[in-house]
């Protein structure tokens, strides 16, 4: 997923505010304070963040000072005595906020990568102040009238394409955030945003608390079925936590997935499963249910001020889906086939359990365990055997190879100490054009799980590309939560984790390849921006990657052709599980925002809605509501989690274009079109039109159904 850092949240919720601009010019800078987080970035590669010098003590005064500077810039634009023009209003806004943008880079890292209880206290204090800051811009009447004047003039005499796009996005962003409301409604709008900002912070911190504090410690006689590498990692984590001689299963997906897949101890599987899926739902001070209800009430009230029936109707108007009905129609077109496949998968698993004499009925904590046994039985495919050929370092090399073939990029490691990092495990590479040697930017990789780092995998930018004030290079990062290996051991990952690694790298390539003039155009449409990253996943299973980068971690021998054939034959295996657990979350996200939130019991709503959908009892939603950070720790994915499937329709359809091409997935002509139409424009072109330019037509859902091995009605 794309980072939900504060910077990204600001850009997504307001689309264009001066705070979301990039560091490409110094002309609006004022005298710098002594606070290192305020200061301009220095050093090589166009200047880099001083991650080695950031501190909790410095972040609050830095953010407050940067906000004040940005508001001063906005006031100067709003009170310009000259008649409003594109240059003195829109371009001026694009140029403002450079200092604040730098501070947000630190703030995002401190919140996502190296959080501490002390930072969370500061975060809770700053959340309402940031909301007030945003409201002072979105409700600046003089500023909006200037924007509106430029917008209306452009409707009569259109500007050049990118200029027109940024004007349209700017006006729409202000309009969607209440700029046309009267004074009384604006006041309430701002109050709601302020309250929501605190609730989002509380929600995220509650989930992080339960991830950090629910740890299952095993003794040596409880390790049945687990691999040597996993055992060594679990021992190291336990030792680091002061539990020598024990083995720690942390409450994160990267730890629980392999445990639930291989552990032979059913009672422990149940305990680990319950810890994970009860995050934020334990009836204590960290329980999120009341917070969710309040968030839903406030969201509905806020959009009601603008005349919308519900939050989803407001949110989706600028997405590809346009309406909640369109999003629901897509999901419900796939749902019956997905749950039907789950019933088939459960039947296969129950058969295996019976054959083994296990005398159990499949429960959610059994699904991964018996699915793996079915995989071995049906396809003679052992996931643990596959992992021996999936080394994290070799996968990184494979991603670099793909980036070179498609984007003509070269990745060169930066010597340690040359570029500051925020944690010793973070490594940095320079990205250059293979032909010209031109610097494209820097790629930071933060691969391992640790205390204070939020779970999951994500990509973010510290500096994006734009050209209106001179070219800027990109500083982008990928962040994962792989279990750190014991010293000298290779990091071996599952096929799913390898796919996610490629996915997040797709986001980074989307950042690096941006060819946009104005910073606002680096934003995205949520049900489109996952498309590019989902598409890049497909290169993991190409022959050139498999034959050259999937080698045994001990012998260095290439993965056997027979094992590759098994992997390909099993490509649609367990699609019932993966599709259903995802779609259940996406459907709940949409339905809970369409429901009346006045007296909502969150757990009851979740349970009754899933029952009505005939959700199979043998698996849970991917993200249960009380831990659904995509939706309730901010607004980027609220009523938009369906976007992964919307993007996957595009992905499946585009993949078929490569399969049909003469050069397959490495077809040079098609790769050029891929970069030109699907990656480089970012949000400078309407996504639907961009896809038609690439494919020559709209995407077809039948491609998705074929991809997942579901029945297709042509």
| CATH top-level class of the largest domain | Mainly Alpha
Q: What is the CATH architecture descriptor of the largest domain? A: Orthogonal Bundle
> Distance N terminus to C terminus?
32 Å
**Radius of gyration from the CA trace?**
25 Å
Count of helix runs: 28
Low-pLDDT segments, ≥5 res: 2-31
**Structural class given helices, strands, pairing?**
alpha+beta
- Strand percentage: 5-15%
Nearest-integer average pLDDT: 93
Helix content, binned percent: 40-55%
Largest sheet: 5 strands, mixed
Dominant shape: globular
* CATH topology call of the largest domain: Neurolysin, domain 3
Strand count: 7
The spatial strand order of the largest sheet comes to 3-4-5-7-6
The number of distinct structural domains comes to 4
Description:
This protein is an alpha+beta fold. It has 4 domains: 6-209, Neurolysin, domain 3; 214-277, no CATH class; 324-360 and 573-707, Neurolysin, domain 3; 392-557, Neurolysin, domain 3 (Orthogonal Bundle). It has 28 helices and 7 strands. Mean pLDDT is 93; it is low at 2-31.
Please render the helix and strand layout as text.
Blueprint: H1 6-14, H2 56-78, H3 86-95, H4 98-112, H5 117-138, H6 141-156, H7 161-176, H8 183-213, E1 216-218, H9 228-240, E2 247-249, H10 253-262, H11 266-277, H12 289-304, H13 311-315, H14 324-355, H15 367-379, H16 383-387, H17 392-407, E3 409-413, E4 427-433, E5 439-448, E6 458-463, E7 474-482, H18 495-512, H19 526-536, H20 543-549, H21 561-569, H22 575-594, H23 602-612, H24 629-632, H25 643-660, H26 668-679, H27 687-695, H28 701-707
Parallel strand pairs: 5-7
Antiparallel strand pairs: 1-2, 3-4, 4-5, 6-7
Helix pairs in contact: 2-3, 2-4, 2-5, 2-6, 5-8, 6-7, 8-12, 10-11, 10-15, 14-15, 14-22, 17-18, 18-19, 19-25, 22-23, 25-28, 26-27
